[in-house]
Write a structure and sequence with these properties.
homodimer, alpha/beta, TIM Barrel, Urease, subunit C, domain 1, 9-stranded mixed beta sheet, 445 residues
């Protein structure tokens, strides 16, 4: 592993004892942070392979995307301004019916390009043909928690054609691969799409493999109503009855919860992944985050799939969380900057199984983003952390380091061939949506 | 004036007859759009001074910022995560008490850098020492509607030291300057800060000069309550009684309105400027836009000052409007992309007194932005207009043309010395907030 020295940098550390370290050196070695110090390490003990001039840069722990469907980049922009049912039935599911395994590789690779540029260290992905997604993650240098989604019903109806056994086999095959950068989960779609046996089986398989379950949960009052009518229990209680919550669980959304369910989620140490851009864009039931935190529930942040969220820009998710929580609470002091960063960094890292990531302290994983603060939107530098949350853009991401490796250097990707990925992804996206290929022009690169 | 030819570009025109023109040439001459056509103009009749290769670019009418306090860039990040009263009393007004006239030049110049990079053609500014703001606008090449804010009370208490007479004198001095790029307005602060005589006088002076009144209006239920108790009328009715609404009016916010006031705003053709990021960040009373449009009220979009909004990124305002309106209406089809763009382009241009701007059609003002669509967040190109609204960043703004002049070329400012402006603005910002100058390092440029 290489040694990297970042000199004269300001750092938002997420270390409560020293939240902002100004003009420090960051020394990285063997995928870990060796030192955050005013002086560079003694040259006899640390010879860097690469030195980064950190002046006018802001170091921040890299972000974590706790729920997405990365390969849905392929249907980004394919279903705009439609009511939810038409969005899903006429557009998304129709396009996905044409999904081929290799499409997932290219769609995920495109998503990796976008997330590297947005300062993301890793993402929790939940989709189909996941060997293809794993291949893209392995090549990208990112970290990920990968789950092969299944419904546990009639196989002939299913996208990707996998059931519980394949989801478990995938989890076994890839867990710990890519030098430990890839972790896996079991991926039952949700309690509203999966029969109880599929949920029970997913929980058992996950515990046998020592991996979490990643699924969708309690997205609407209507789902709660149907769950009560069908199973005699609300969705969270239903998952508990199926044994799923006995092991680690990453539950996306959880927008319709009562107090007993909040307490159960807290007691079972479930992490709730919230994706606020999708809730607004698809006009779903929106819900505050602070009541979850107040009840002791773990929360992490995500983008959801680009079919709904349009992009995978986690920097924008940070500010949406701050803005929406302040607005809902009618309290401008609610959800301060440091708390938003904690959710996006340390809480996300822990939820995805990478607890060493998410802080800039000695011993932590060398997962960090260096933001260029020379744009006019960063001036004056009264509050750099607030700038990162409320005004930064992916183009400010100058370098991204994950597991001690530079994935973005001076704004250029080091691991992926972005021009080729864009061209191939677009060709496949237009095939899936049945559009004329004549519309495609050649990218300049 | 120069002739500019943009070849092989896709254009979101906001022309209802042809909303998306693909692979066209845009010919610009004498500050106007000469042609939007499949073929380049005959070389005998049109010899371009500059030709832009439009492949992989998306042309869009440049955006309009209908309400801001540009020089408040100087207090960006100076009052984060504070309750509104502490935000205002302990931070913003304290810093503004140290405001010097020349600070407004540098703060506005910094804002102009940021707005050029965000694809803005012009902005409605409402602040103090406005000759300094006008100087920055003149140099920047942007358009603006400038109002010198005044309170009409005890002069010794006032920032900037101006009253009605100075606000009117400024409006007379600068209206139509900078080749018509600068227009002016009378700038009484608001009905809650200005006595009735000041409002009446502002309306009379504005009508005498043929300029609009730009003010803050009806920001909260509490303001309505106080207005009724003090004047026996809600704020909009009070403005009407003071004669302000007899002339063109640009009213920021209008968050607390009843049906009669909606009807009055529509009848008086008032434009309401909405700045959604500030409402959330300061936890103000938020309010939907669609009911205003349904009542026939004119609406335009803005950033407000960076003290509250953190930045002047109008591209982000577009998506906030879409997301918040869909979420509020619980209807994913609400507030479609074309309507958002109409508000930000044509409606804003008209409200600020530049009705020739806001559309890409022959005869319209040559105010347009060229977005680079090569980023991964634009791929695949299923819906370019939706990409502009929901996924674009200021760094995608490759060129900005205002009044037929290129203000941003290949991502570089042509009119302003950005490095010098950043350094000088930061020096002054730290003086205003009383911070140690030792904290300031030299920008690399």
């Amino acid at each position: 592993m290489s040694r990297i020295l970042i000199e004269h940098v300001d750092a938002v550390t997420l270390d409560p004892d020293r939240p902002l370290a100004t003009d420090v050196c960051l020394a990285l070695e063997d995928g870990r942070i060796l030192a955050v110090a005013g002086e560079r390490p003694h040259p006899a003990r640390f010879v860097p392979d690469e030195t980064i001039d950190g002046r006018e840069l802001l170091a921040l722990p890299a972000l974590w995307n706790a729920h997405c469907h990365a390969a849905m980049t392929l249907v980004r922009g394919w279903a705009e301004d439609l009511p939810f049912e038409r969005w899903l039935n006429e557009r998304i599911w129709r396009a996905e019916s044409a999904l081929e395994a290799e499409d997932v590789y290219w769609g995920t690779a495109l998503a990796c390009c976008e997330m590297i540029r947005a300062g993301v260290a890793g993402f929790a992905d939940h989709y189909f043909h996941m060997d293809q997604a794993a291949r893209a993650v392995e090549e990208s240098g990112l970290r990920a928690l990968l789950a092969w989604c299944f419904f546990g019903r009639d196989r002939s109806e299913e996208v990707g054609g996998a059931g519980l056994d394949e989801s478990a086999a995938f989890a076994r095959r890839w867990h710990g691969q890519a030098g430990g950068r890839i972790r896996t989960a079991l991926g039952p779609h949700s309690p509203y799409m999966c029969p109880p046996d599929a949920l029970r089986g997913a929980g058992e398989a996950a515990r046998a493999l020592g991996v979490p379950v990643h699924l969708h949960l309690a997205e609407s009052d209507e789902q709660v109503r149907v769950s009560r009518a069908t199973h005699g229990r609300a969705p969270v209680a239903h998952l508990e009855a199926c044994g799923v919550l006995e092991g680690p669980t990453l539950a996306a959304h959880c927008l319709a919860l009562d107090d007993a369910e909040l307490a159960l989620l807290a007691a079972r140490r479930v992490t709730v992944a919230r994706t606020p851009k999708t809730y607004l864009k698809l006009a779903m039931q929106d819900a505050a985050i602070r009541p979850l935190l107040a009840a002791g529930v773990r929360v992490a942040l995500g983008s959801d799939g680009p079919a709904s969220s349009s992009d995978l820009n986690l920097l924008e998710v940070l500010r949406l969380v701050g803005l929406l929580e302040k607005g809902r609470a009618r309290d401008a002091a609610a959800m301060p900057v440091a708390e938003i960063l904690r959710l996006a960094c340390a809480a996300g890292a822990e939820a995805l199984g990478f607890p060493a990531s998410g802080r800039l302290v000695p011993g932590a994983a060398a997962d960090l983003v260096l933001l260029d603060t020379r744009g006019p939107h960063w001036c004056p530098r009264h509050d750099l952390a607030a700038g990162a949350v409320y005004a930064s853009h992916p183009s400010d991401v100058r370098h991204l380091i994950v597991d001690g490796r530079v994935l973005l250097r001076e704004g250029s990707l080091t691991t992926l061939d972005e021009a080729r990925i864009r061209a191939e992804a677009e060709r496949r996206a237009l095939r899936m949506t049945g559009q004329e290929l004549a519309r495609v022009r050649t990218y300049r690169g």
